[in-house]
Design a protein that fits this description.
By secondary structure, the protein is mostly beta strands. It has 2 domains: 38 residues, no CATH class; 47 residues, Signal recognition particle alu RNA binding heterodimer, srp9/1 (2-Layer Sandwich). It contains 1 helix and 6 strands; from the N terminus they run E-E-E-H-E-E-E. Strand 1 and strand 2 form a beta hairpin. This is Glyoxalase/fosfomycin resistance/dioxygenase domain-containing protein.
């Protein structure tokens, strides 16, 4: 997947929650590409990836991407009812 160039990344802190905003160039209408304009996904930090995945599976939630080791973190993925990405992230 080709990631489009980003102008900047903005972090907004709300208490112990951080929102990361990633504006991109070459804005186009919505397609199936997860790297496009508007809200396309959300990331949630978890304390224990295996426990989080087991909990979600126990609630009948399908895992869209099993956790993978990215070196400095583990990343898994589920989708909401509209197909938008909900990323689960465990930082090492």
């Amino acid at each position: 997947m080709k990631i489009p160039p980003m102008k900047e990344i903005v972090y907004i802190e709300l208490g112990d929650t951080v929102i990361e905003i990633l504006p991109v160039d070459d804005l186009r209408p919505k397609s199936g590409n997860p790297w496009e304009i508007g809200y396309r996904g959300i990331a949630i930090e978890v304390d224990d990836m295996a426990t989080a995945m087991d909990y979600l599976k126990g609630k009948g939630i399908a895992i869209a991407q099993e956790p993978i080791d990215l070196g400095n973190s583990f990343r898994g993925e589920i989708r909401d009812q509209d197909g938008l990405i909900i990323e689960l992230r465990l930082w090492k």
